[in-house]
Design a protein that fits this description.
The chain is built from 7 helices and 17 strands. It has 2 domains: 1-234, Probable tRNA modification gtpase trme, domain 1 (Gyrase A, domain 2, 2-Layer Sandwich); 235-304, Elongation Factor Tu (Ef-tu), domain 3 (Beta Barrel). With 304 residues, the chain is α+β, with helices and mostly antiparallel strands. It is 19% helix and 38% strand. The radius of gyration is 20 Å and the shape is globular. A hairpin with a 2-residue loop joins strand 4 and strand 5 (70-76).
Length: 304
């Protein structure tokens, strides 16, 4: 377990968009729009998928929850409005699909640390039932787990009106809320991406190819993804950069390599971390120099 994680647990309140879909054709409609296969989902199932444009580039990352006769789609706050507009445009005139903005109704949290289960057990939650493919119902809350590079995160969706009470109970059990800068420092060391790292990029470039199911049938961008999959070559990849110096967001020219694009940055003590789209030819390097002769290390986000 990484030493930079809290010995107990910490919670981060995500800035997410919430879209609620209903109607007999809602699941089939979403299945046509997203990269993952959804037609087999049942009540309380969880699935993560991408919403891409016709060029195969990511518009949003969506976490799905099937709840009785509704589907809750959790996405990025930044992309929420455009995601709903895209989903609306794809509804056929004869389809039974309703779509509601739930941004102010549902909150989304992530709990992380070296001993998450101890904090949750204090709430009376049976952590043995947590799963990455299912949502666990606890009162009016839904809990599920996810794993990145062997580090587990527990995600929670709950009514906005119950957010503060839930945070208070977590704090009573040793799990404190953390600000965005601390979350960024942790998630970047772990290998977790946010919308700033993936939007406008191809899933294969940012390590999200596991969310693309090429055998599911047509969806926006499917032909582009299939072509890239068959070629097996990418022009660039998202990498983690480490340096004693601060990084600057945006494009940087690197002599002998080309252009890299820094998507996220964070600082933790004397270590500065960035995510950057790096030309594939440079991804095997142990270090490179950008701006002011700064020497930085390169690491893949996903550790196999």
């Amino acid at each position: 377990m990484p030493e930079f994680l809290h010995p107990n647990a910490e919670v981060f309140v995500r800035k997410s968009s919430v879209t609620i879909l209903g109607g007999e054709d809602a699941l089939a409609h979403l299945d046509r729009c997203l990269t993952a296969s959804l037609v087999d989902l049942e009540n309380f199932d969880r699935r993560d998928a991408l919403l891409c444009d016709a060029n195969g580039r990511i518009q949003d990352r969506i976490t799905i929850c099937v709840l009785d006769n509704q589907i809750i789609a959790l996405g990025s706050e930044k992309s929420g409005t455009s995601t709903r507009e895209t989903l609306l445009r794809g509804i056929g005139w004869d389809e039974d699909v309703s779509l509601l903005d739930g941004d102010n109704a549902i909150s989304y949290l992530s709990i992380i640390g070296q001993n998450i289960y101890r904090a949750l057990a204090g709430l009376g939650i049976d952590c043995s039932e947590l799963s990455s493919s299912r949502w666990l119902e606890f009162g009016n809350s839904l809990l599920s787990s996810s794993m990145t590079n062997s580090v587990e995160t527990v995600d929670v969706a709950l009514p906005e009106s119950e957010l503060q009470g839930f945070l208070d109970i977590l704090q009573d059990n040793g799990c404190h809320e953390i600000p965005t800068d601390k979350w960024d420092a942790m998630r970047m060391l772990i290998g977790i991406t946010e919308i700033a790292d993936i939007i406008g990029n191809l899933p294969f470039e940012v390590g999200l190819d596991e969310l693309v199911k090429l055998d599911k049938g047509c969806y926006p961008g499917q032909e582009i993804h299939a072509r890239l999959d068959s070629r097996g070559k990418l022009a660039r990849r998202l990498m983690r950069l480490v340096s004693p110096n601060e990084f600057v967001l945006g494009r940087h020219k690197v002599e002998g390599i080309g252009t890299l694009y820094v998507t996220s940055t964070s600082s933790n003590n004397d270590t500065n971390v960035a995510y950057a789209l790096v030309p594939s030819a440079a991804c095997e390097l142990d270090e490179l120099t950008i701006a002011s002769d700064r020497v930085i290390g390169l690491e893949p986000l996903i550790q196999n």
